[in-house]
Amino acid sequence: MAPELQDTRRLEAFGTAAVVAVVDPSRGRLSRAVAAVERTVAEFDRACSRFRDDSELSWLNASAGAVVRVGPVLLEAVGAALRAARLTGGDVDPTVGEALVALGYDRDFGELERSAPRHTQPVASIPGWRTVQLDAGRSTIRTAPGVILDLGATAKALAADRAAARAFEAAGCGVLVSFGGDLAMVGDAPSEGWRVRVTDDHRAGQDAPGQWIALRSGGLATSSVAVRRWRTRSGVAHHLVDPSTALPAGGMWRTASVTAASCLDANIASTAAIIRGAGAAEWLSELGLPSRLVSVDGTVLHLGWPAEGDDLPAAPVAGAGAQAACSVSGLGGQAAGSVSGAGGEAAGSVSGAGGQAARSVSGAGGQAARA
């Protein structure tokens, strides 16, 4: 009996669950897509991991202010992180590495989760992204002495975009790549779209409160303070550090999901939304980025995003009127979004200046991905 064709494969990447899906699984397309994704993961891990002593990022963090020549992957990843900082007015800042280490996040998260409560030594301040000097022409990066870069807010999303593009080229059909719920889609989607379950934690089962949506192109990212949490002697910490305080972000939202023209831009916006708190709703609306914001009390605000089929109660609209901290036209001008609800009816279609559509997520052949 011939083996059943499979259109989705799950694997581990960057310490989290990954999904690779293809529209057409015939003639080994899925295997070629997976191989392309695995190559991309290996390249980004060697270049950008803060937890590998032999990574380029670890060498850069140990450079004590010297000019370091780096490879193209780290150069692009640091460039993306600096762009994120610039576009968000410093809310998403790669120089939070020292603060994360001080909070106990000095090892792979799987090991951190299993460890005893960590002793914390909060840092006084974040050095700031302007202390990083990148010379693209010479392929060099220089940081101020003692600066520890952490690319967690952008590198995984950038890797998803690059992996999806390579998988599409290798498979020759529409693909979806998800790294821990950060999704990138390239090529034609299934007729019904890629179907995705959006929850606080991509690892949660389908019975966890959330919402099914459909996407067709672009990227989706979810940032949450409900995951990647660990015990410290002074309480629970999480991985989203507010650069203005050098402490884990606290505020209005526990989870932010955003669609954009790329996974990278979606992740920049979702991370900044958590940091900004009450100012996030107006900021995201101005950018025209379809978003789902879950408040700390478990209510949900939909911005250009369908409300139907959401398990969580709607948040009061009054919280959405806060003043935006700064304009980020570099994101809104590139990204536009169309998110469909589980019923298949389009809702919250937003066209940005770039005219590019952000996609819908439903696995070919009925397979579902996790956001």
What does it look like?
Helices cover 26% and strands 25% of the residues. By secondary structure, it is an alpha+beta fold. It has a single domain, classed as ApbE-like domains (T-fold, Roll). Strands 1-2-6-7-10-15-16-17 form an eight-stranded antiparallel sheet. Strands 19-18-9-8-20 form a five-stranded mixed sheet, with no helix packed on it. The chain has a three-stranded antiparallel sheet with strand order 3-5-4, with helices on one face. A hairpin with a 4-residue loop joins strand 16 and strand 17. Helix 1 runs antiparallel to helix 6 (155-171). It is globular and about 50 Å long. It starts with 7 loop residues before the first strand and ends with a strand. The model is unreliable at 1-5, 319-329, 333-337 and 342-371 (pLDDT under 50).
Give the helices and strands, then pairings.
Blueprint lengths: L7 E6 L2 E7 L6 H20 L7 H6 L6 E2 L2 H16 L9 H6 L6 H6 L18 E3 L4 E3 L12 H17 L3 E5 L2 E5 L7 E6 L10 E6 L2 E7 L4 E4 L2 E4 L2 E2 L4 E2 L4 E8 L2 H14 L3 H8 L3 E5 L4 E4 L25 H4 L4 E5 L4 E5 L18 E2 L1
Parallel strand pairs: 8-20
Antiparallel strand pairs: 1-2, 2-6, 3-5, 4-5, 6-7, 7-10, 8-9, 9-18, 10-15, 11-12, 13-14, 15-16, 16-17, 18-19
Helix pairs in contact: 1-6, 6-7, 7-8
Compute the CA-based radius of gyration. 20 Å
CATH topology term: T-fold
In which order are the strands of the major sheet placed?
Answer: 1-2-6-7-10-15-16-17
What would CATH call the class? Alpha Beta
Please state the second-level CATH architecture. Roll
Q: What's the mean pLDDT score? A: 81
Residues in helices, as a percent range: 25-40%
